[in-house]
Amino acid sequence: MTAHREVVLDGRSLTIDDVAAVAAMEAHVSLGDAARAGVRAARALVEAKAASGAAVYGVNTGFGFLARTRIPTEDLAKLQVNLIRSHAVGVGAPLSLPQTRALMLLRANVMATGNSGVREQVIDLMLAMLAQDILPVVPSKGSVGASGDLAPLAHIALAMIGEGEVFVDGDRRPSGAALRAAGLEPLTLAAKEGLCLINGTQAMGALGCLALLRAEALVKAADIAGAASLEGAKGTVVAFDPRIHQARPHPGQLASAAALRALLADSRIADDHAECDKVQDAYSFRCMPQVHGATRDALAYVRRVLEVEINSATDNPLVFAADGDMISGGNFHGQPLALALDFLAIAVAELANISDRRVEQLIDPALSSLPAFLTPQPGLNSGFMIAQVTAASLVNENKVLVYPASADSIPTSANREDHVSMGMTSARKALEVIGNAEVCLAIELLCGLQAVDLIGLAPGAGVAAAHAHVRAVVPFMAEDRVLYPDVEAVTEMLRSGALVRAVEAAVGPL
Fold first, then answer.
1. What values do phi and psi take at 327, rounded to 5?
2. pLDDT at 3
3. What span, in angstroms and rounded, lies between the C-alpha atoms of 304 and 160?
4. Domain 5-200 belongs to what topology?
5. Cα torsion for 306, 307, 313, 314, to the nearest 10°?
6. What is the pLDDT of residues 33-86, one digit of tens each?
7. What is the 3-state secondary structure (H, E, C) of 63-76?
8. Is 301 noted as a catalytic residue in this protein?
9. CA–CA separation, 318 vs 320, rounded Å?
10. Distance of CA 388 to the CA centre of its chain
């Protein structure tokens, strides 16, 4: 791994950019000295409570509905191993390697708060596995989001005790053999440590952080695509006048309006039709600041929630070493994230929804002055007819996916866990919606830039930068060709952030 930065865990100062860097193998992770001291103090309290014989949930009792069952001292270690084995019931495709790295980082940071009660070697092993890129196979389905992401986290813990599977160099291998081959000894769990490893929201949090970063890039891409389509439709920039937006000063609306002005500055296309009799454009053009801006504001809310969550203690019970207390509560409940990630999915779906309507404005000759389906010889050629059909299918799929997972709750654990968040479902759905929206905006960019080429005049500065970046890979479509490689190429430009970076290099931050 080539680490470009050092992330020092203290349980309080992790950033979403840190999560992205670790997920991308661009950072090395260590446990800070002060945090290490806090971990030791919390562990000392756990061991004292275990030795006292007093009933402490998860230390010398069963779990969930079985919390009133006392466990003999000689069985406390077995209790923790049984917990991990019984809870590793995830199903479905494994999390991606970046998602798994993010998950491990977040779980290590929770334990670094000093409120968990694990021994420091538990954190050290997790960080060593990260450093050597020995990553547990974590099935993506099976969490209801309270008591946290039990099944996904149990698969992390299972690998740490030398059971289950890990990915090494892209191959699935038995965990115990892979750890020993790397010079690492599988963990022997002590009192409370199994519970510490699986109580929390870190699976939905990891996916949520990575989803947020993609969504934040996508909302900028939506402004770029929308500006290209506006140029292609010979729309007016009047609706982006700053006075309009100061009269309704939502931060996201102000930001999107400013971005659109920058993208459209110095447009020869706009100059050419400045005296035309078109007073107002369709809402999908005129209301871009209001719609895209509302998504920006939604994402700002999601960011605030995630920034708090990734630096929070989500175990149960929580250890407060300074007070000598271990207190049972419900910080593992994923409701804050479930609501936020459902909101993220809804907000991003709207970017695709309005994008598809702009595409329709371009390809329908009844709505524009352009040739049908943006092809110079319609009839002989179908142009972008079916590209819009593809976008419509993805918009439809998003409308199904944005039904809030958090609106549902199915009681578990014999009704002890009688309200759950379904936050992991929210996170997985949000990523699906983002992937669909990326493709929809890629299709719009292809259409918008095709329209600009058909007009034959220079577009605004930001649209020109987008045009140059895309045309370096995807040429003008003079006649029909296979389109899916073009869509895939532009989608990757959006997903990687390369297009946004190229445009921002020309016009400044969007």
1. -125, 130
2. 56
3. 32
4. Fumarase C; Chain B, domain 1 (1.10.275)
5. 0
6. 999 999 999 999 999 988 887 777 777 777 767 777 887 877 778 888 999 999
7. CHHHCCCECCHHHH
8. no
9. 7
10. 26
